[in-house]
Hints:
Layout: E1 31-34, H1 37-40, E2 45-49, H2 61-73, E3 78-82, H3 87-99, E4 103-108, H4 119-126, E5 130-134, H5 136-140, H6 145-154, E6 161-162, H7 170-183, E7 189-194, H8 198-207, E8 212-217, H9 224-236, E9 243-246, H10 259-272, H11 281-293, E10 302-306
Parallel strand pairs: 2-10, 3-4, 3-6, 4-5, 7-8, 7-10, 8-9
Antiparallel strand pairs: 1-2
Helix pairs in contact: 2-3, 2-7, 3-4, 7-8, 7-9, 8-9, 10-11
Amino acid sequence: MSDNVGVNSPDVPHPEALDPAVLHPRLPSPLHEVADERFARHGVRLLLKRDDLIHPDLVGNKWRKLAPNLRAAAGRPLLTFGGAYSNHLRATAAAGRLLGLDTIGVVRGHELADRPLNPSLARCAADGMRLHFVDRSTYRRKTEPETLAGILRAADAEEAYVVPEGGSNALAVQGCRALGEELSGRADVVAVACGTGGTLAGLAAGLGPGARALGMAVLKGDFLAAETAALQTRAFDGRRGTWSLDTRFHFGGYGRTPHELLAFADDFEARHALPVERLYVAKLLYGLVVLTEAGAFPRGTTLAAVITGRPFS
């Protein structure tokens, strides 16, 4: 199935399309070297690519993924999907508020409709997003054409522009290619936390020869490699760049943040005065420390970690 359906095709020209550039993103995002003995004693330089500083509300890879889709939406309502604590839903809702765009969030878990909104969903609602709750079985089948059409009818959003869960479609991958281009020639290995594979797919395509991208999965399962390859095929008609995935540092799955991970994040914050987002960034940084201490990176390696988000407040 294509990333968008019917009138949502990004191939249809929309001269009146919204341009998120009016929000003045900080691009390219800053690249900082940090001194950390856990890397230095193995001869590895650590750089932090501060995509969390691109925009106060559209943070990190959310900007890179959403900006091209917002242009393609061309002022139509934008409908997308996420769980109860989805960073993607929050970013989409914020974009709608900032650009005057109607947004609809399809939320996994029909039972949540009868409960008070958690802080994440409350922020979405405050930013003007209309929340539509669906049962988990329907949510699992949301990419099937008949199921998606039913969701659009039920949400009174049949004319909406549809963005998939996590924001990863061909346009998003093309938007993330700029991340790799910004890092081309600056690092030997560029690592990023992965939920849907879209950022990794674009990053790898933009890096150019001589560098590789490393995705750190934050979910259980072995599906991400196939998803990343499929996204590259949709965006670029084939695999691009050198990339791989490590699936050992998800800490039990998405949303799982055991004490060991939280203690690591607290320590990294104290060492480097960097706010560490726990669901993605902490797992990325933890994995990089473990891999470095295991000798996964040769001495002389310059390693860049993409900071894709910051703690929710």
